[in-house]
Predict the structure.
Amino acid sequence: MPATQLWLAAFAQALADEVLQPLAGMNAIEKQLVEAIPRIHARLAKELPSTERRGGLAQLMRMPTAMAEAQVQDALVGLKGVAQNGQKILGGYLMACIAMARQRSRRLDDPKGHKFPGSWTLEAPEDLLGLMPTRAIRYSPGQKLGSYTLLRLLGADGAGECWKATRTGPENTDLQAGAHGGDDEELEGTPPVTVRVILKESVVERVRLAKTSLRELADAEMGAGMARLHRVKFAEHGALLVWDYVEGVPFHGGQALWELPDGRLDAPRLARWIRRTAQALVPLHSLPAPQAHGGLCPASIHFNQSDGKWRIRVLDIGWAAIDIERHLRLDSQLAMRRLVRALKHHGAWRPLYASPLLAKGQSNQPADDIFALGLIWYQGVMGSWELAAPVSLNWLDRALDRGLSSGHGRILSRCLSPDISRRFTNASELVEELLVLETEKEDRG
């Protein structure tokens, strides 16, 4: 039997036995999945050697989506004790796992996420959990949702689902999934968008409370470095947030831009990418009533290729500050430790990047974004995307050994200060300081 079929058969049967019932509820399954993941992983490890676990998923990631879906359907036929409706639910979930693996594997040399990263071992339950949606998948490619036709799943979590979509009709607030798109054409000249469907009732209510500020953000001019928030919609079945779609690579997937082949660090080049990220935040921080992103993490900063050059795009404006509240609640639950570790590994755990006051829910201002950006910079310098903010200056010696200049070390230390009065007030101040160092280096030749 081919590696893909071995992998799918073992994984699908484990899912059917462990989480089919909560999946059938079409809601978030975070608690059930975290509880079941050790057993799911143990069954895979028992039935498949390590090389076959990695190889089966690697082949599915490389396949065209239609071919992968055919493989999934073939595997579902042989499941024990699963009715047709259960097979349909599991099929949607298995395809979502493949989609998430592709999303989280993207690198500069593989922006579509078709290569299985060598750093992925799948040896621990958290390795598998990080590639699995934490909710049942309600929608499917080709379905209409309000004014949009869904194209490709980007992710799914306790709050809802995120899709690449295209607008194919007039304004429509109905969030019920309609029939598949059939022969509908994209509206002429309409670029794709990112559609986040909020399904969890408590999060919908939180979005509703923030609707005035969200709509102000949608009306504001944010510049080319920020994925623009287009609209916020509410309906009986949830809420919809729509942004520019960014085809790109998450920040931690871009480390080849500053990691040299011999393992050394091109620290000035990394600092330039941090400065460009800060520049993308300047319009947000410079609004008449300054706003913060509120949930910066490597997964919310993308390298987007345009005219043959990589450029920074910041994602999730408006949503990140809401999503971090949900993450902070999960962070306080010991039972969610595995999920926290899984998301940290993929640069998607927002509380890791929260300033001390933001983590306590006592602050959400531009200086908190500076702390988050400082931690991303620090992780890039140290070569690890799971490091927490340092509590002393002991890290500086290693950073200097890695190639960080004393000037950049001084600026980075200010970004990471737990004392908000020592931090840069906003992105403009950080950009100015970094440009001074770049200019001095150019002047020295």
Notes: The longest helix spans residues 3-24.
